[in-house]
Amino acid sequence: MGIRININFDEKRWLETDFRAMARKAFEATLRLLSCVDFLEKTEISILACNDQGIRRLNNQFRGANTTTDVLSWPRTDQFYFQGNGVLLGQKYKNDTFDLGDIAISYDTCTKQSEELDLKFENHVVHLLVHACLHLLGFNHQKDTDFQKMKELEIKCLETCGIENPYAL
Question: Rounded distance, CA 32 to CA 29, Å?
Answer without folding.
Answer: 5
